[in-house]
């Protein structure tokens, strides 16, 4: 189809007979989706847009926004043991609180509680808007509008010129978090569409001798490739933005009247400007790829809520998809919380400087880039399934909180007691973080009912961003009520272990069949 919904003519990769192929109909499922082959410019625009979102989650939230919020709140806070004394942030293993109303909250917990609020807001938006992107020409518009809001909020971070304006930082944090989370919903929703209409897959789709299972295998290869490229582009963008922020941190000395984190705040603004470039490219070259119109008589504001509610109620029909989602909820919450716990622990307990943090960030992103290709090569030569690769990755993640718990043993010389341990285990985290997200995204896209991409990717983001308030909330409570930040690793150890168990019970082949059947049934209901 063209952007106005008409199918192209004379294309060597598409003709009217394509959807007469029974295997293609079973796999792709729908006659009224945009069936236009993906042009190189469109694929590059999608990859580039995703790469401009990546530094927001990877660089800004992965390292610097937590440090900025903790430093600003500590700069206007008090010693936790004596609320009459200003916080001494130069002391080793400092512990400070900030007053909010009648409450005194640990300065580390301030960030986690803010992320919890953002996650809850995202959850409501995911539910309310997810299904709308599968109908009509709204997917691209929503993606770009949320991105504009997030980019502007990033650019406003340098407006925080005093420590006691940390509240403004919290507001901007919430806006950016919600905006980038919603943007990722629509970025992810494009993946199965672009994979199914990729020339690399359409060549196989024309082969009428292939069975649905054989086409599924070919689609998995194509989806893995596109997903891996997406994370590779994102890793390159992360390192590029990190270089820019490093130069700012090393050569830009803010006046004494400004917060000590001001160079990092300018760095967040640079991330926002970079995000705007992705918005322009996507607006120019990414196709809308509209879905069918809303069913006759459907209410714009309640349709998505009903669709998500219906999808959740179909647990028995999509058992493996929901089992995967439950595992993903725990897994993404665990590795997302782990990253923030590690960086705040490194700063407040081990005395990491800004330069130490920048080196750590470079290590993680370089390892992430290597990790994507390492696991892709491992899968290619070992012939291991994506599910088996995910099991290996989740087992490796369990090692990190286990190491942290060793530090709770009295007299133990290891267990995040020295900076070198943080650098070594952050390298492990880096090798896993990009690769495991790519693996999860690939597996989930295979389980999706055709034509319900945004609807179910909104559930994917609900379980990711929505459920992600659990980790920060629990860790914040641990920080507020215990004297040792290593106690957070108990929670992370349990969560990673449960995720591994849940992933092990997912039957991918059966889940694909469940998705196909649901997609055909759902479209028939929409047409009534």
From TrEMBL:
<keyword id="KW-0472">Membrane</keyword>
<dbReference type="InterPro" id="IPR050495">
    <property type="entry name" value="ATG22/LtaA_families"/>
</dbReference>
<comment type="function">
    <text>Vacuolar effluxer which mediate the efflux of amino acids resulting from autophagic degradation. The release of autophagic amino acids allows the maintenance of protein synthesis and viability during nitrogen starvation.</text>
</comment>
<feature type="transmembrane region" description="Helical">
    <location>
        <begin position="488"/>
        <end position="506"/>
    </location>
</feature>
<feature type="transmembrane region" description="Helical">
    <location>
        <begin position="110"/>
        <end position="130"/>
    </location>
</feature>
<keyword id="KW-0029">Amino-acid transport</keyword>
<feature type="transmembrane region" description="Helical">
    <location>
        <begin position="142"/>
        <end position="160"/>
    </location>
</feature>
<feature type="transmembrane region" description="Helical">
    <location>
        <begin position="395"/>
        <end position="416"/>
    </location>
</feature>
<dbReference type="InterPro" id="IPR024671">
    <property type="entry name" value="Atg22-like"/>
</dbReference>
<dbReference type="GO" id="GO:0005774">
    <property type="term" value="C:vacuolar membrane"/>
</dbReference>
<keyword id="KW-0926">Vacuole</keyword>
<feature type="transmembrane region" description="Helical">
    <location>
        <begin position="231"/>
        <end position="252"/>
    </location>
</feature>
<feature type="transmembrane region" description="Helical">
    <location>
        <begin position="166"/>
        <end position="191"/>
    </location>
</feature>
<comment type="similarity">
    <text>Belongs to the ATG22 family.</text>
</comment>
<dbReference type="InterPro" id="IPR036259">
    <property type="entry name" value="MFS_trans_sf"/>
</dbReference>
<keyword id="KW-1133">Transmembrane helix</keyword>
<feature type="transmembrane region" description="Helical">
    <location>
        <begin position="321"/>
        <end position="346"/>
    </location>
</feature>
<feature type="transmembrane region" description="Helical">
    <location>
        <begin position="46"/>
        <end position="69"/>
    </location>
</feature>
<dbReference type="GO" id="GO:0006865">
    <property type="term" value="P:amino acid transport"/>
</dbReference>
<feature type="transmembrane region" description="Helical">
    <location>
        <begin position="264"/>
        <end position="282"/>
    </location>
</feature>
<dbReference type="GO" id="GO:0006914">
    <property type="term" value="P:autophagy"/>
</dbReference>
<dbReference type="Pfam" id="PF11700">
    <property type="entry name" value="ATG22"/>
</dbReference>
<dbReference type="GO" id="GO:0012505">
    <property type="term" value="C:endomembrane system"/>
</dbReference>
<keyword id="KW-0813">Transport</keyword>
<feature type="transmembrane region" description="Helical">
    <location>
        <begin position="358"/>
        <end position="375"/>
    </location>
</feature>
<keyword id="KW-0072">Autophagy</keyword>
<protein>
    <recommendedName>
        <fullName>Autophagy-related protein</fullName>
    </recommendedName>
</protein>
<keyword id="KW-0812">Transmembrane</keyword>
């Amino acid at each position: 189809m063209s952007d106005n919904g008409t199918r192209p003519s004379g294309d060597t990769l598409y003709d009217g007979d394509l959807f007469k192929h029974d295997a293609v109909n079973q796999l792709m499922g729908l006659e009224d989706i945009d069936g236009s082959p993906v042009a190189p410019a469109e694929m590059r625009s999608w990859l580039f847009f995703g790469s401009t979102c990546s530094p927001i989650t990877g660089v800004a939230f992965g390292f610097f926004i937590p440090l900025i919020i903790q430093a600003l709140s500590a700069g206007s806070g008090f010693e936790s043991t004596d609320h009459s004394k200003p916080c001494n942030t130069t002391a080793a293993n400092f512990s400070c609180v900030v007053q909010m109303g009648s409450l005194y909250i640990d300065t580390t917990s301030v960030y986690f509680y803010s992320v919890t609020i953002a996650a809850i807001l995202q959850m409501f938006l995911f539910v309310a808007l997810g299904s709308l992107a599968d109908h009509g020409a709204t997917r691209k518009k929503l993606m770009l509008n949320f991105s504009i809001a997030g980019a502007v909020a990033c650019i406003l971070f340098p407006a925080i010129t005093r420590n006691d304006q940390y509240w403004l930082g919290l507001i901007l944090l919430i806006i950016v978090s919600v905006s980038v989370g919603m943007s990722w919903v629509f970025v992810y929703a494009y993946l199965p569409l672009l994979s199914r209409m990729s020339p690399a897959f359409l060549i196989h789709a024309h082969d009428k001798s292939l069975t649905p299972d054989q086409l599924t295998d070919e689609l998995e290869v194509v989806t893995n490739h596109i997903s891996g490229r997406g994370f590779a582009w994102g890793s390159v963008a992360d390192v590029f933005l990190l270089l820019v922020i490093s130069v700012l941190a090393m050569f830009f000395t803010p006046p004494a009247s400004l917060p000590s984190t001001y160079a990092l705040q300018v760095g967040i603004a640079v991330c926002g400007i970079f995000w705007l470039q992705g918005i322009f490219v996507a607006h120019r070259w990414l196709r809308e790829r509209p879905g069918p119109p809303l069913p006759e008589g459907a209410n714009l504001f309640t349709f998505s809520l009903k669709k998500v509610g219906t999808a959740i109620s179909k647990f028995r029909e999509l058992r493996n998809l929901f089992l995967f989602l439950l595992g993903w909820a725990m897994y993404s919450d665990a590795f997302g919380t782990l990253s923030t716990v590690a960086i705040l622990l490194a700063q407040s307990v081990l005395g990491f400087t800004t330069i130490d943090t920048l080196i750590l960030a470079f290590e993680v992103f370089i390892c992430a880039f290597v990790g994507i290709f390492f696991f892709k090569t491992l899968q290619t030569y070992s012939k291991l399934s994506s599910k088996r690769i995910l099991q290996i990755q989740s087992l490796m993640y369990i090692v990190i909180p286990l190491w942290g718990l060793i530090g709770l043993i009295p007299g133990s010389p290891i267990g995040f007691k020295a900076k070198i341990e943080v650098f070594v285990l952050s390298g492990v985290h880096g090798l896993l973080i990009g690769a495991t997200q790519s693996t999860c995204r690939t597996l989930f896209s295979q389980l999706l009912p055709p034509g319900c991409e945004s609807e179910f990717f909104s559930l994917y983001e609900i379980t990711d961003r929505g459920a992600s308030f659990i980790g920060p909330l629990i860790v914040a409570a641990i920080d507020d009520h215990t004297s040792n930040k290593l106690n957070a690793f108990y929670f992370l150890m349990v969560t990673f272990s449960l995720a591994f168990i849940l992933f092990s019970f997912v039957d991918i082949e059966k889940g694909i069949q469940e998705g196909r059947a649901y997609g055909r049934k759902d479209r028939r209901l929409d047409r009534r």
